[in-house]
Each structure stands twice: as structure tokens, then as C-alpha cells.
Amino acid sequence: MTFNQVLDLLCESDARNALIVDDVVRAVRAGAAVLVMSKRRKHVRDLAERLKAAGLMPYEITGEGTQKERQRVVGEASHAMGALCRGGASEASAVDVSPESESESKESAAQLPVIVATESCLGEGFDLPELTALFMATPVSYSGVVIQQVGRLHRTSPVKTSVTVYDYVDISIPQLERSYKRRLKVYASMGYEIAGGSEEQADSRGSFIEASAWSERFIQDIRSAARSIEIFAPLPM
């Protein structure tokens, strides 16, 4: 199966797209200024439709239309997000998403735009310092592209103190698993840490493990297991 065929399957996966949309909605409700990037125009349209149905305000930026039209959309999206973030929308570090405040949360999320774009359409001229979260909706292998995409979050802004990259790991496909491992090295070189899950998982998930130090961490994890352990490892080629 070629990479393009694999990419088609990923972009058409209802479960995968639903996961991305759920994560975006959750991030926006928590006050993030979000950029979603994909390799496919159709995927951008699909995600934008889902985000709109979820109550958000997506701006689609693809290679369709004239250059002037694309520049207009980029300008509108940048202006809308920048204005809202500077007005304090992105400073809410947390939003109550309990059932009692569900309607308020949706209304708050709908006020913040989300930019959904193809990778090739956001050139060097795109600059939005308020961005705090990047969603990589399709896999990236080349380190230079990873650095360029993640670098969009590194513009300084007085309204943000941290940034987050959402990377979707399709480890069931060996080709994509190898691609993810290459991205991990880039993230580590840029100073990123892997976000932990629960408090119990934080120690093992919050850092990159070098090959020379894996055994010590492995033994620590085994000793801290409450009842049982499961070990997943690729078969030797």
C-alpha cells in the first residue's frame, strides 16, 4: 500500500476524524487558539464541517480559489482569532464543562475561530502569534516540515504562556509508526515534553526515554505496577 493510499484511509476514517474534532472542541473550550493542519483539501473541508456542527467557527484555508481569495480568508481568520485572543478569549485557562454549564461552554467555544488549513497553503507570510495549539491531522515525516509547522506556535505573544502540539499516532501501520518516531526526535530537540495522562502515568509519559536509559525506567515501571503489566514491542525484522 502506498503512502497516498494510507493517507486516503486516514482522512476518511470516521472514528479518527471524530477523535480529532473532540480534541479540538475540548481545547477550544479550555481557551486554546487552534490551528488544524492536513495534507488534503477534502479532509480540511470534512473537519471544518464537523467543527461547525460542534458549534465552533472554522476558517478553511486551502489551495482552492484565486490567490486574492485565499489571502482574504487568511486575513479574516487571522484578524478574528487575533482580536478575540487579545480581548481575553484565549486567557481562560480552564472552562467548566460540567453538565450544568454545557450550554455556556458551547456558546463560549462558538465565539473563538478555528483555522483549518492544508499544509501547503500556509506559507512564510502566515503569522499569528496568538496560536497556542497545533493539531497535526495527517502524519508528517520530514523533519523540516515538522519544525516549520510547530514553529507557528513559537511566535511570542503576551496572552500565552505555553503551547501544545496534538500528534495523532497511527502505530498500527509500520510506516507511520516509523514516521512518528522521527517526529519524536524533532519534538525533543525543540524542547517539548510528552503530556502525561493520569497522575499515575505522568512519570513514565512525561519525558523522552533515551536508548541508554530505558532499562532503568522499565524496571521502575514494573515495580510500581499494582497488579499486572502488559508489554508491547515490535517484532524484530
TrEMBL record:
GO terms for cellular component: cytosol. It comes from the Bacteria. InterPro entries: Helicase_Restrict-Modif_Enz, P-loop_NTPase. Transmembrane segments: none annotated. CDD domains: SF2_C. PANTHER family: ATP-DEPENDENT HELICASE IRC3-RELATED, TYPE I RESTRICTION ENZYME ECOKI R PROTEIN. This is Helicase C-terminal domain-containing protein. It comes from Collinsella ihumii.
